[in-house]
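Hello again, I could really use a second opinion on something today. I owe you a coffee for this, so here goes:
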Amino acid sequence: MPTRQIGWNVSEVAFAAMYLLVAVQALVLAYGFTRRYVTWRRGRPYGPIDQVGERLRQALAVAFVHRRLIRPGYVYAGLMHLFIFWGFVVLFIGTLIVLLEADIARPYFGFSFYQGAFYVVYKLVINLFGLLFLIGLLMAVYRRYLQKLPKFRRSLSDDAIVLGILLFLGLTGFLLEALRLSATRDEAAPIHWVAYPLSLALNGVDPSILAGAHAVTWWSHMLANTALLVYIPVSKLAHIVTGPTNVFLRATDARAALPLIANIEEQEHFGVAKLDDFNWKQLVNFDACMRCGRCLDFCPTFNTGKPLKPRQLIVEVGAYMNRRAGLFAGPAGPRINEAGVRGSELTSPDEPSLAQVPLAAELIGDVVSEDELWDCTTCRACMEQCPVRIEHVPLIVEMRRNLVLEQSRFPQELVLLFNNLERNGNPYSFPASSRADWAGAAGVQELSGVADPSELEVIYWVGCMSSFDARNQRVATALAKILTAAGVKFAILGKEESCSGDPARRAGNEYLYQILAQTNIERLNQYQPKRVVASCPHCFNTLKNEYPQLGGTFEVVHHSQLIQELIDSGRLRVAPVAVRDGRMAYHDPCYLGRYNQVYDAPREVMNRVEGGFVELPRCRDRGFCCGAGGARAFMEEKRGTRISHNRLNEAIGTEASGVAVACPFCVTMFEDGVRALNVEERFAVRDIAEIVADGL
């Protein structure tokens, strides 16, 4: 009956040493992660933690199924990680099975299960997952050191240490098996199908030499395993624990809404100026990073040469946090005694480390530069791609809040923005009384002139851009034409509408945002709308997801959703429009797509009206930002290349005759872009409402 002697060629002293090392491993692991937990809890309170079952399900799905790792565009990296993870897990379980047989089943119950059919299946499975483990590691070596990806320009010591130890464990595991098979001439050797060929090559070696080599390899394997487990809490492998923990603790409303500063009038401190200002869950973010760089792949600032690189920001602050807590923080630097990097780069070999920054250094300025914070477009591409759900955008906005509300340190352009919002209720210098000037020619009523507002089906929230910008007034007029053609009873707030507050909030001015939001909520509550339709995704997101934080709960739809609904119901009949010189490409606005998961409605409208569209290479949740979000539309783009040009060049490189959008900010950014790129004569920029209106 197939089996093997457990502990062949291993002395009792070696066994005793092994169990002692296991105890050391467990103690060091527990101590290391306890230190991290204590460090996190220095942050402000967080909670309560609701939906525990759903949180646990998602954490387990990330940890064991790799649900957010194996995604389109990341099949290689996802499978690589899956092979390494499950290879390690199954090999670990295999070791536990051997210990269960040797230390419990035989001595206490007098029976053995480690034989016969069980043993055969066990060995076949262990060899399979051991091989997958090695394949995954070799894939990682290729990806890290040979593929030369821009996001991995700098090789860190931590990468080499982790990969080196894991490769050594995988290879010595098979070598141990081969040495034993060859020395004992095991009749069941063929079932060890990976180690068996190597054992055949060793058959000519003297058994005593094989036994000696086996003993040396066994000790090397055991010591390497100890080194790995002791190193986990201070290495990138800590994400094995911190990653699922971060997924479990994630803010359930982080997709669309920034956290509210409650009772803002009573607060004495705003935002984050030092580590302890973050809540303790936010501090977990900084320890959860896998260093995979997926946040960089679709980040508009990284891809246009700007200081902000979301992975580096997380690594910078995480290393700074660990250093201040006295934790060994090797993973962030090129040498294991470094506590991280200073500035924004992990890609330059000569970059200084945080070891050169005094312990009393300021978080903002010395660790995270102000340029990094103000470059963010809040597009959420980083959060969408992060396998462990790190919430980069709220972290950045918290630091912006401190700069704006406490330190009054912000770009000069925002002075004008804030002043205009306070005085005029819009980001521009136009008086509030002119907000509805466009509506007269379009035959659009203001709510103040409607005899019975309860008869209205929708209130059209026009937004600042479509109210004051001549180009986007054409979008508002087109939507009004569509609603009229469909027989929808609607009106606008007109002069009673103020800015939704989105640019103020994303720029860190929470106080101004709440003033604007509360004013709008009061006015909307006065009219008790059945539905609100917004043509601006930023307004749509704010009204739908953030106004409820202040008591304003309304049914809000985006104009693409309403148009699709009207077409599907038969209320709106649109003749297909043959777009001159070919179909248009569709660009996903960040606040419509990633923030609210509205991907299909505008595409369905394009299919129904134009008979199709060109899908851009970076689309849906991997779409590329236009560069306007996070109040960036109101700031000069002084660093790197223009984000809108990057996106437009992608669209121009397709067969499309223009780009269709569903956001007034995208219209403005791309209109400026086509002029700067000298393609305005052959490459159109149109909102889907304009395309639909042409077919009426």
Residues 75-109 form the longest helix (35 residues). The chain has four domains: 49-245, 264-405, 427-569, 585-694. The beta strands are 458-461, 490-492, 532-534, 556-558, 585-586, 614-615, 658-661, 684-687.
